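@channel sequence for tomorrow's demo:
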Amino acid sequence: MKKLFMVILFVFAFGLVSYAQDTTDTKDTAETTEVVKTEETKKEVSAASGFLYNDGTTNYVSLGIKFQIDATDQLSGVKKVYYITDLDNAFNVYLNPFGSFITEGKHYIAYKVEDNVGNFSAIKYFEFIMDLTAPETSISTDKPIVKLGDTIYLSAKHNFTLYAIDKLSGLKSLEYQINNDAFGAYAAPFALNGLTTGVHRINFKATDNVGNVSATTQYTFFLDNNAPTVNFDVEPVIFEKDGKKYVSSKSLVKISAQDNETGIAQILFSIDGGEYKEYKYPIEKLQNGDHTIKAKAIDLVGNESPEVELVVSVDNESPEGKIVPISR
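structure tokens (generated this afternoon):
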């Protein structure tokens, strides 16, 4: 029994010494690991061709993008760069710019760098969205338009506003031209200054931040700069005497207007400086005395005619007659 106890004691002591040695070895190894450091490898993914745009949070790229990976190592130097994309099944050795992405949406590149003594960098990821969609554009005016048949009619009073929206990389530019002028950047609503009456066009297009360009939209219209003409017609016919125009209270004063492009929207009149009213029926039953009737017309695109006036004297007094004897 005593002999068995001595054996157990010996084994326990041997195990304790062995544990102390293992602990010391582990500590030495840990200290060695802390002292020996590998210079961190610097990496960068950039576009060798095509468009790469970052809006501050997200990378966007164009169709045909080719990526390059730049790596440096300050100590032993770079041996190889490896990469894999969401299109690959295994890491590839990077030799030249690459890229075969053709579908819109999210993609990624993972890459790592090996130096000449076998150190590997951590795997890094470069995520991006491929944007294949051009911006959408539209145009509006600040006043109603007139469409007669297939033709849009406008006046020089109309101002135009252009719109563009891009749902991915965002809008970079919006440009327009009038007729054959050079394209210019759109900044604010604009008017059609200096254009003659006739057919004109506005072309506009938009570009997003990865180079997608919308189709050029053409907005064709007829610019109507011509105001209507206004005329008076009195029934029965006016009688003139000594430069004065006479009518009776039974007379009808009619106002008409003509417009050669779009047509008449409204005729307005006033009597003796009063408020303008819309003309609907002939003017009648004027009081005895002198009166000034003014009139103007507005066409369908807002062109207003010059004011015209008619000055008449209403004679409501019945004539008198008497028999004068003639002496013989």
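heads up for whoever presents: The helical segments are 2-35.
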